[in-house]
Amino acid sequence: MEEKVHAVYVSNLPTDITMDEFKEFMSKCGVVQPDARTNKPKLKLYVDEQGQQKGDGRCCYIKKESVDLALSILDGYVLKGKEVHVEKARFELKGEFDPSKKRKKLSSAQKKRYMENQNRIFEWRPEKPRNYRPLSDCTVVIKNLFTLEMMMRNAALLLDLKEEVQQSCSKYGVVKKVVVYDNNPEGVVTVTFETTDSSDMAVKMLNGRLVDGRRLEVALWDGKTKYKVEESEEDRKRRLESWQNYIKGESDDDDDEKDRKKTGSEEKTESGSVSAPQGAGDKEESDVIPEKRPKLDDNPE
């Protein structure tokens, strides 16, 4: 199905008119038809053998009513000192018919794209209210909340930090999502609230606050910036080693606790009283140095 043609022929145009100027002039009476194959506006300025404009052109509209409007409004219009003449376009065959020059029918994909463009042009879009806020304004970006060294030393910090941020930010409103970008050197955490009122309050209360000597930078997300940083192979190995040490440390503590209980039970059986073995209260030093998780409530400067 080829698109319907509603075209006008325009003569006595200024010879220095540009295609953009011609489009703007013809658009006064309606939407110019886009080509179904190229999606470019179906406008043409005729030129002579030397490539110089002849002062006439053609415009195809989407709606038939635009043709009638152009005949009544643009015909006789003075453009750059010249009185323009507009009439319905007549397509006549010049010379003999050559089947090889006949345009091929539109493919299914071209038809579909053409109809989608048509619908998009005429679809109704409600105006945005004056107080409109983009959805990205519900997300707050917090920088300098942690360092990469802290993440490497404590494998559990990622989960602890997420829990701490969730709890601390809940005082500003309903928190829908917390993301800790543990590989980002800027120490980035994003918090998505249910409303912009909550995110605005979080920015106001947290921006500039000191946490463990680091000053937080807090702002609304711009909706474009990506904070995820891909982990290198070396960092991945260090993280896995740190996590294994963390798990081993917890396992060793559990074994020590079981040994203390067993020793105490045996001594109680022999003497009838419980006496803690020497050194039982001292924990074996772990390879993982516990890292104090940042507190957003600290130092409310």
TrEMBL record:
Q: Which InterPro entries does the annotation name?
A: Nucleotide-bd_a/b_plait_sf, RBD_domain_sf, RRM_dom, TatSF1-like, TatSF1-like_RRM1
Q: How does it assemble?
A: Component of the 17S U2 SnRNP complex, a ribonucleoprotein complex that contains small nuclear RNA (snRNA) U2 and a number of specific proteins. Within the 17S U2 SnRNP complex, interacts (via UHM region) directly with SF3B1. Component of a complex which is at least composed of HTATSF1/Tat-SF1, the P-TEFb complex components CDK9 and CCNT1, RNA polymerase II, SUPT5H, and NCL/nucleolin. Interacts with GTF2F2/RAP30 and POLR2A. Interacts with TCERG1/CA150. Interacts with (poly-ADP-ribosylated) RPA1; promoting HTATSF1 recruitment to DNA damage sites.
Region annotated Disordered sits at 231-301
Q: What is this protein called?
A: 17S U2 SnRNP complex component HTATSF1
- Span of domain RRM: 6-91, 138-223
Molecular function GO labels: RNA binding
Cite the record's Basic and acidic residues compositional bias ranges: 231-241, 258-270, 289-301
- Domain of life assignment: Eukaryota
Report the PROSITE patterns cross-referenced here.
Answer: RRM (PS50102)
Spell out the coiled coil positions from the record: none
Q: Which Gene3D superfamilies match?
A: 3.30.70.330
Q: Name one GO biological process term.
A: DNA repair
Its subcellular locations are: Chromosome; Nucleus
Q: Which organism is it from?
A: Teladorsagia circumcincta
